Amino acid sequence: xxVLELKNVNKDYKLAGKEKFRALHNIxxxxxxxELVSIMGESGSGKSTLMNLIGGLDxxxxxxxNIDGKELKNFKEKQLDDYRKKKIGFVFQSFNLIPHLxxxxxxxxxxxxxxxxxxxxxxKATELLDKLGLKSQIKKKPTxxxxxxxxxxxxxxxxxxxxxxxxxxxxxxxxxxxTTVQILxxxxxxxxxxxxxxxxxxxxxxxxxxxxxxxxxxxxxIRDEKNENYQKNDTKNKLINDVHALPARKEKEGHLSxxxxxxxxxxxxxxxxxxxxxxxxxxxxxxxxxxxxxxFGSGLTGYISNTxxxxxxxxxVTISKADKKNQSFSEDDIDALQQDITQYxxxxxxxxxxxxxxxSPGLNIxxxxxxxxxxxxTVEYTPEGGETKYANVVDTYTTPPYYxxxxxxxxxxxxxxxxxxxxxxxxxxVMLSKAACDLLEVExxxxxxxxxxxxxxxxxxxxxxxxxxxxxxxxxSFFGDMMVMYVDYGFLxxxxxxxxxxKNLTLPPEQQVPETDLVPNLLYIEADSESTADLIKQYxxxxxxxxxxxxxxxxxxxxxxxxxxxxxxxxxxxxxxxxVALIMILVVLYMSVAExxxxxxxxxxxxxxxxxxxxxxxxxxxxxxxxxxxISIVLSLVVxxxxxxxxxxxxxxxxxxxxxxxxxxxxxxxxxxSVMAGLYPSSKAAKLDPVESLRRE
Length: 697
Hints:
With 697 residues, this protein is of the alpha+beta class. The longest helix is centred in the C-terminal third of the chain and has 45 residues, at 551-595.
């Protein structure tokens, strides 16, 4: 039975409008194994069209083409791919070798598409190239070969899958006469080995060595005759020996594996390494900005939170009124808060009780802000043998007292003893911030403790003067450069009442200075644990319309919100830059498909499925994303390291925390956007028409 048979085959091409051009008319041919057939004809006669139909590159025709008794037109796409891979071997006039692959890789590409074991591929290709006189050339690239060598590589590629039919399109058209003879001898040997070899040629010389000549003109067969002088040679050593691969996993047998696709993609990327590296660097810049944005956000948030935590007792909760017009707490307010907070804790499974023992009204501290530029309403200090220093007592300044020992730089918090205060020599105590040490001309906070200063102050419009002792120096966290003074409630109350009595003042009701005690505007709850303190803070947060926490907490919250807004803005900017990067990758990959159209046609001619082409280009986009992600991590470490050094030298600290999860996120984002960008180009490559692709120059 004939290995190949054509019955009444017609082929039409659509022209503009509804017109058609018939390229082949009622072609009837049959071919046997072992034949060396030359198909001759002028340009445009239909030779190449006939070859494309036989080779399964074009399946749009009328009539019947039988391969081993099976109708080619009935083949599904997958069957056509297998047909080109296993039954057909193409040899092209322009060789159509893939330039960035070595000779060995060009030959084994067909086996790679069949997922043949690496060692078997190399053995089989090496044996074949050795028989074709190319063993010493296997590591070279096609550009390093002569025309004859290139054509022998093309023949080896056509033979590697041991097909039944070899289709050679003008196999000697680009060769000199001596090389032509060599190539024709090889093709004759292939036919004499028992394969069907069909050559398209213009040359009478080529046709003369054939066993059969078929001439075509205007799409019609005008001659079909055998060469009576053809001498078939006995071949002792076949070009293709039986080399069998170990069985692959069934579900992947015969198809391009993901690993092989990655290796091919690496070859492709290395061939255009400068372009790919520049593209990866461009993408990585967007990723670096994302990593640094996350690192700065994390670093600043952590710094603010740690600073606030370092200046407060974690078990202490500060409460003040959110209403700025009525900041004082009455006894009824305090009682109501004690009951409500205790009940809230119980509702959340906590037995801590808020009462007069655990809640203190302001811890008996009033805070004043000091202004060293004024001599009115002042704290005065005259160093021994020196000039008097002044700090203006500006106003009450509501901030948490520094009741935690870790905030104290020297000394103690002011303590008021009402019994001792009855003594005429009683001087009272105040606490100053570190910045106020400049007033005292001391080098260390310890030197300031115990010194006497003259206080010329006022509260609620009542002026008074007192000599006071500095009990301690405190660190004021966020307000480190501010001169702040802390005075005990009891002592201040004593000073105000004495001033009222001594000056015989009658105060208007709106001044709200009571006859007995000052009204607190801060409450403090000393909880038994951090978890209890956190629950109380939750209560305050739920009543944010009427209550608020400490200044540190408010500042930390404000900065955190600002950083959150800033981070969102940076995230949007990073997102825009990443979108631009995605577009850039898409454009580059799309251009790559256009540049490699002929390569895609070659791959399809040797049996690559659309899925295989898509996998190769998708692998390239994945590798570009991987490379971009790696470069972004390296650049982030370098740039981040520079930022850390600069910030530490300028600020003394570097609010930059580079977490490993940020690098992982950048790598993931890079891969995702690259793969997304590669979807359209890889899909377009997979859908390219092989005939049109092979025509592309």
